[in-house]
Amino acid sequence: MPDSPTLSAQVYRDLRNAILIGTYPPGTHLTLRALADELGTSVMPVREAVQRLAAEHAVVLSPNKSIRIPPLDRAEIEQLWRLRILIEGDVCLLAAGRATAAQIDAVAALNAAAGKLYRAKQLSDFFAKISAMGRVLAEAAGAALHAELIANLRLRSGPHMALALRGEGATDDTFVNFTLAMTVEVVAALREGDGERARDARRVDLQTFQRFIFDRLGWQRVAPLADAGAAQNLP
């Protein structure tokens, strides 16, 4: 009996989430059989999931049918972060004046929960809360295409972010306090309907996150976006 569409979709979601939270570090080589054994399923739904993930540039398929998590490539990762900063900032701009009180409250609650998880070094759950917050903001903005792009950018960013956040010093109080405060600023701006303030706060937050990740990877810091002037006051 062929695998059901429901099973194929579940395998795709499981593999996608594993990549998003950094289960497989950059450069990891995988096989269909090993993934099928890991997920307790047959090879067919895994093959279908891998093909979807390859189309999303989350994995690389070689002519010999080997599967690889893309290796660290600074130029590409810088592009991913730049796009995230621009698009997620724009979502906050669009959400101002449109977000309901319930949606804004949800962002605030997810931010508080993410902070607790980060300090507890429960990084998989931390990433889940951050992703949920992005979905709520995109829904509030009425920006379905933005949400699709953000989801893909976060998926492709997951392995290198998780790699950077492993080991000693990954949970830095100064960093986490700043990023939590910036999301509080986003929430306050949304409540006041101030889109530009919400956009700039979100961009500064992401720029700071990028700097922290790059520092952890041993990469030289990047310059702030020219239109995110507040970023010039970052430590």
Fold topology:
Elements lengths: L4 H16 L8 E2 L1 H8 L3 H13 L4 E2 L5 E2 L5 H22 L5 H19 L3 H19 L2 H21 L8 H20 L2 H22 L19
Antiparallel strand pairs: 1-3, 2-3
Helix pairs in contact: 1-3, 1-7, 2-3, 4-6, 4-7, 4-9, 5-6, 5-8, 6-7, 8-9
Q: Which radius of gyration do the C-alpha atoms yield?
A: 18 Å
SS-derived structural category = mainly alpha
Largest sheet features? 3 strands, antiparallel
- In DSSP terms, counting alpha (H) and pi (I) runs of 4 or more, how many helices? 9
Give the CATH class of the largest domain.
Mainly Alpha
Question: Please, could you describe this protein's structure?
Answer:
It contains 9 helices and 3 strands, in the order αβααββαααααα. The chain has 235 residues and is mainly α. The chain folds into 2 domains: 5-68, Winged helix-like DNA-binding domain superfamily/Winged helix DNA-binding domain (Arc Repressor Mutant, subunit A, Orthogonal Bundle); 74-233, Four Helix Bundle (Hemerythrin (Met), subunit A) (Up-down Bundle). A 3-stranded antiparallel β-sheet has the order 1-3-2. Strand 2 and strand 3 (67-68) form a beta hairpin. The longest helix has 22 residues, at 74-95. The protein is globular, with a radius of gyration of 18 Å.
